[in-house]
User: Fold this.
Amino acid sequence: MLFKNKLWGITMAQQFAKKLYNSARWKRCRAAYIAKVYGICERCGEPGYIVHHKVVLNSRNIDDYWVTLNHSNLELLCVECHNKEHMSEGAATVEGTMFDSSGQLVRCE
Assistant:
């Protein structure tokens, strides 16, 4: 179950990943992966924007580089495909929210 942090407007589950996503090593890994797949969503073929982790990041694996920075655990998705991934059964988001092109959880309008 995810708990909403009203101060920051993001889920507590995302708080532990903040350091990773702001790190230079993640930004280099992300850029290299996007270049590797030519910037194309790996599900629909549209331009991709979000580097998605296939194995969901959590507080136990966030420091495991084989999970966080391993290209075999990454997938480039467009915003629509990423939202579909997280809106499916057992999703990390709740109705009325979605991920924007930078991967931030926002309210749907």
The beta strands are 4-5, 10-11, 50-53, 74-77, 97-99, 105-107.
